[in-house]
Predict the 3D structure of the following.
Amino acid sequence: MSNYREEQRAKAVKLRDEIIKDPGDGMFAGKNRDFVLSNPVLNLWTGIRDDAVDYFRNNNIPWWKGDDDKPTGHLLSSQVACLNHLYFLRQRIDLATMVLKNIDSRIVKASIVDNGFVEFEIIGKDNYLNEKYHTRGANSTSVDAVMIGEKSNGKNILVLIEWKYTETYDSKKLYIPERYNNYNPLLQEENCPIKIDDFEKLYYEPYYQLMRQTLLGWKMVEVCEYNCDEYVHLHIISGGNTELRSTITSPRLVGEDMSDAWKKLLANPEKYKVLSPDALLKPLECEKDVQSLLTYLRKRYWE
C-alpha cells in the first residue's frame, strides 16, 4: 500500500466521527472495516446527498462497489470524491463558469451538458470505440465527469474530467486481443490525437485509461457532440499522491513523470492538464455561499 493511501486512510478514520458522524465498521470485500461507513449514503456531502443518489438511480449508473442503489461506504472512493467536489455545480451556471474560465480563458460561460452543468459517467451518445458494451459507469470507456464551456464564437469546448484520489498502478501489461482489436484501428487513423508507433506501450494503467478517454473525446468532437469543436482532458490528482504523479508504469515510455510521459505522445499536449482538486475549485474560494462545502472539502480531502 502506498504511503499516501495509508495516510489518507488513517485521516479518514479520524475524521469519520468528527465530520461524518458514522461509527464505521461497514462491510467491504467481505470484511468489516473501520474506513468503511456503516451508512454509505453519508459518504456524500449533506448538500448533495439525496439528489446525487437519485441522479445515479434515474440514469441507471452503478456505483463503484456500492449496493442497492447506494454509494460505497469506502472513505477513499475517488467516485465519491468526484461527486463531493463537483455535483453542487450542476445547477449553478455562475460557479460552473468560474471553474471553466480558470481551465481555459476563452470560455465565456458554462453550457448545459444534458440536464446540468456537470454530468457524470459519460460515455458519448454513440459507441465510438466499438466496445462490447455501451453503458454508463461500467464495462465501457467512461469519463468521471463532463462539463462544457461556450466560447465567444458560439462553439463549445468539451471538458473531460477524470478523478483520482489514492489510486496507484503497477506495471501490469493489459495488451490482449479483445482490447487491441478495439483501439488499435483508432490509433492508426491519420487524425488520431495520440502519436505512437508501438501501441503496446499504451496498455498499462493509467495510460490505458488515458488513451481510451482521449479517443472518446476526439470522436465526440469529430461529430460535434454538444456542439463542441475541441476538447480538454483534465486529470484531477490529489497533490499528495506523488506516487501516481511521478511513476511511469509503462516500461518503454519516457518522461520526467507520469503526465510528461503522456504529453509526449499527444499531437496537442496542451489539451491534457493535471490539477489538484483544490486548484480546480480555487476560483470559488471567496464565494460566500459555498464556504460550508469548501470547509468540508478542505478538511476531508485537501489538508
The longest helix spans residues 3-20.
